[in-house]
Design goal:
The protein is 0% helix and 40% strand. It is mostly beta strands and 78 residues long.
Length: 78
Amino acid sequence: MFVVDREEPKILLTGGNDIEVYLNQKYSDLGYEVSDNYDDSIEVTIKGDVDTSKDGKYYLTYSVNGCWNKYWKYYKAS
């Protein structure tokens, strides 16, 4: 049997895509929920840093990897 899964995994970032963090405030990731219509063994990798000692916009990339698909979602902190 050969399965073709054309549906991307879904990721929902808790707190939304844009968040506000004040200068020198401790940053804590708000978390996420991930699901896939076919694969139960989904891995999430988070890349990027938020340096609250410096003013600016910071981007974190959430990579969702399942058996068949790879999907990216961007999470922004400013």
